[in-house]
Amino acid sequence: MFSALATAWEMFRSQKVRFLLTVSGIVVGVGSLVIMASILEVGQAVLRDASAQATDQDVITASNDWQQLQNRPDARRLTHEDQAAISGSTLIAPGSQVTAAYGMRDRQAEYKGKPYNPFTIGVDPTALDVFKLRLGKGRKLAGSEFESGARVVLVGASALDGNVEPGDTVRVEGHPYVIVGVLEKKPEMGPGGPWSWNQRIIFPAKTYALDFDPSRRPSSIIVRVAVPAEIQGLVKDYMLATSSVIDVILMSDRSVKSWELEGVSDDSSTEELVMFTIKALLYLTTVFSMIVGGINIMNIMLVTVVERTREIGVRRAVGASQRDILSQFLSETLAITLVGATFGLVGALGLLGVGSWAVTKWVTPWPFQVEPWSVALGLIFSSVIGLTFGIYPAWRASRLDPVEALRYE
C-alpha cells in the first residue's frame, strides 16, 4: 500500500492538473458530505432555537376551557392557588418560571385620534422574563405600578400605528393610559396577528383587574420549563411529560378538567418527514458526485494501463502473476481515491471554519461543528467507489499478454 501511495503522490507531483481532474468527483463528494452533514445538524439546531424563540416551545400554557365551564356546574376556573401549586411543586424542573395572564381579548382603543382594536392582556411582574420579552424603547413596568394599579402600559413593536413613543397616551375603552415602554419585535411563526406579542397592549395585572376584570382570576397560567441539560431522550418528550404533571397538579382538588394545555405537540411527523426528505436529497447529491468521481478514476486508470503496458510486461517477465498485477493497480486506484478524499476533507474543514466565522459575525451564532460519522462515511464510501471502479482497469492490466506487452512501444 505504501508503494501505491508513493505512486499516487508521484502522479500528483508530476501531473497535477490531470490528477486533480481525476479525483475532482471524489473531492467534491467527500467535501460536500462533510459540509452538508455539518450544515444540516447545526442548521437544524439553529432553526429549532429560532422556532423555540418565536413559538415558545419550552412554554406550557394552561388556559380556562370555557366550554367546560359553561356546560359543567362542577367545573372551576383557574385560580392563584393553582398557580402557587404549580410553582411550588417539586415535580416541576427546578428553575422553571411560572406566571399568570389576565383577560387576553381585543378592546376598542384610540391613539392619536385614530381608532384601533388591539389585543389586551394583564400580566404579573414576572411575565417579561417568562415570555422572554425585551424592551426596545422606554422602560419596564415598575413594581410599585403593579402594586398600585397605575394606569401605565407597555405596547408591542407593531401595536397601534407601529410608531409609538414612550410618554404617549392611549385610550382603551375610554380609560387613558401612559405608554412607558415599547417592546422589541419578537420573531413570529404561524398566523401571528393579534395573538402576536408585537400587536398587544400589556397592562399591570391589578390595573387590568380594576378597569376590565373585577374577578381578578387568571385566564391562563404559563410555565416556562427549565429543561435539564442532562436529560436523556428528546426535549419534546420531556415537555410532554411535564404537561402530564401539570394536569395532575391541577386535578388534585377538582372532579372535572376545566382547562386546556397548549405548548409542545406530540405530532411532529410532518416536520420529521420534511427534514428526512431534505437530508435524503442532499446526501444523494454527494453519492452521485462520488459515482462520477469513480468513473473519472476508471477512465484515467484505463489510460494508465495503456501508458504502462511495457512496465506490466517487464513485471510479468520477471515473475509477477496476474494476481500481483491486479493487486498493484487496485492498490494504486485505492491510494488515488484516498488522496482525493483527504483533499476533500481538508477543503471541507477549511470551508466550514470560514463559513462558521462569517455567519457568526454577520448573521447569527453558528458553531463550528464536524460530524465524525460523515468523515468516516466519506472515507469508507470513497474507498468502496474507488475499488469498485478500479476493478475493470486492474483486470485489463492483469490480462495483458506478457510477450505482447514487452513489444509495446
Describe the structure.
This protein has 409 residues and is α+β, with helices and mostly antiparallel strands. It folds into three domains: 2-52 and 270-407, no CATH class; 58-96 and 225-263, no CATH class; 103-205, no CATH class. The chain contains 13 helices and twelve strands. It has helices spanning 2-14, 16-55, 66-71, 80-88, 127-130, 143-148, 205-211, 235-250, 269-307, 309-317, 322-362, 372-398, 402-407; strands at residues 59-64, 97-106, 109-111, 114-116, 119-123, 135-138, 152-155, 169-172, 175-183, 200-204, 220-224, 259-262. Strands 1, 2, 3, 4, 5, 6, 7, 8, 9, 10, 11 and 12 form a twelve-stranded mixed β-sheet that branches. β3 and β4 form a beta hairpin. α1 packs across α2 and α2 runs antiparallel to α12. The longest helix has 41 residues, at 322-362. The radius of gyration is 34 Å and the shape is elongated. The model has no long low-confidence stretch (mean pLDDT 82).
